[in-house]
Amino acid sequence: MTDLVKRWSRSSNDLRADEYRQGMMQLSSRLQQAACEARVVAFNGKGAYEKVCGRPVRLGWQRERIAGAKVFVLPSTSGRNGSLTRAEKLRYFRRLAQWVNHYDG
Fold this sequence. Notes:
The chain has helices at 17-33, 46-53, 86-104, and strands at residues 40-44, 60-66, 69-74. The chain is an alpha+beta fold. The protein has one domain (13-104): Uracil-DNA Glycosylase, subunit E (3-Layer(aba) Sandwich).
C-alpha cells in the first residue's frame, strides 16, 4: 500500500493531476522492479485513478493494466465520500477480496 502523491493536503482536491501521474510512474517502476509480480493494483477512490488515467472511470475492474497487474478501483473510504452507503462500499471490497482469494486459492 502506498500513496501516489507524497505530500500532505487538506483534501484530494488540492492535489494536481500531474502529481498523480508522476506518482503513478514511480509506482509502475517499483512494481516492474519488484521480486514478485503484482497481480492487481487497487485504488482507494476513483478520483485518484481518474487523475492518473485522464478520463472518467467507474468503480470496479478497469481495462488498463499497470506493470502487468489488473486494476481495480474501490470507492473512497474517506468519511467525506457520502455518495455510497457503507454496504455499497463493502460490496466492492468483497468483490476484490473474492477475486484475490480465488486467484490465490
